[in-house]
Design a protein that fits this description.
single chain; alpha/beta; Rossmann fold; Conserved Hypothetical Protein Ylqf, Chain: A, domain 2; 12 helices
């Protein structure tokens, strides 16, 4: 079924190359890089080429959408990343939770040594400049708007909205450089592609949504069965928990999504599951954990 999920994905290496060049050309203008991740899939939502693109610049990993992720898993991810030497922070840009921790984390942890040098040489008043990077749909624009307390960056619930770079001034003497979303031209690991598709980072128009929803149900039945039982009254999971399509039919039947002949409208069931997972209606769910890190 994994092969059926993505029907005709067309990646755009030209766009990727343009964004890579843009990051390289502007890296010298900033003091540090803020890489925004999806807290539900922290590792899968990291472009594997980002380390090479950013180099030795100080980097903060911001786990956005934390209100939709399993809080225990998020804590484990932050500990794992900080053990590797990153500054890591959980945040939910839509609700504003965790936003107040951003500036102190930048000043007191990420750039403490740089700011100490500035105080010593009399340039303490210079603004802190941060480059904001991340794959499409992780919430870069929502983060910038929350920090700027405005609608400076265009926000839509679909991938790839930011097309060009833009500078945004925020409080606390900081400036943010927003870059276009960076998605890699091809996936070596299909499990990464699946997790990105689950969260909406890949356009649904090129997906087989019933196959995708079936895969998500298998994942949820293994890790969060209570969420399915509570939301869809799916109490008969034990016998079919490895059969994603059977679970999709059960979900549709429980929700009364029937068509002529009593068959289940599995397309409608798939759309419902994906929408409700992505909006957090299934509860706080994380789809990968630090020990699975590649």
């Amino acid at each position: 079924m994994a092969e059926e999920v993505m029907r005709n994905i067309q990646w755009f290496p030209g766009h990727m190359t343009k964004t890579r060049r843009m990051i390289a050309a502007n890296l010298s203008l900033v003091d540090a890089v803020v890489e925004i991740l999806d807290a539900r899939i922290p590792q899968s939502s990291r472009n594997p080429e980002m380390d090479q693109m950013v180099g030795a610049k100080p980097r903060l990993l911001l786990l956005n959408k934390a209100d939709m992720a399993d809080p225990a898993a998020t804590s484990r991810w932050i500990a794992a990343y900080e053990k590797k030497g990153y500054t890591a922070l959980a945040m939910d840009c839509r609700s504003g939770k965790g936003v107040r921790n951003f500036a102190p984390a930048v000043r007191e942890r990420l750039l403490a040594s740089l700011l100490e040098k500035r105080r010593a040489n009399g340039t303490a008043g210079a603004p802190i400049r941060l480059m904001i990077v991340g794959i499409p749909n992780v919430g870069k624009s929502s983060f910038i708007n929350r920090m700027a307390q405005s609608k400076r960056a265009k926000v839509e619930d679909r991938p790839g909205v930011t097309r060009t770079k833009q500078w945004v001034k925020i409080g606390d003497n900081m400036e943010l450089l927003d870059m276009p979303g960076v998605l890699w031209p091809k996936f070596e690991d299909q499990s990464v592609a699946q997790r990105l598709a689950f969260t909406g980072a890949i356009n649904d128009d090129i997906m087989d949504l019933e196959a995708l929803a079936s895969l998500l149900l298998v994942r949820l039945a293994a890790s969060y069965p209570d969420a399915l039982e509570k939301r869809y009254r799916m109490t008969e999971l034990s016998a079919i928990q490895t059969d994603g399509f059977a679970m999709l039919e059960l979900l549709g039947r429980k929700r009364g999504m029937l068509i002529s002949g009593g068959e289940v409208n599995t397309e409608r069931a798939a759309i419902t599951l994906l929408d409700e997972f992505r909006s957090g209606k299934l509860g706080r769910i994380t789809l990968e954990f630090p020990e699975q890190e590649r």
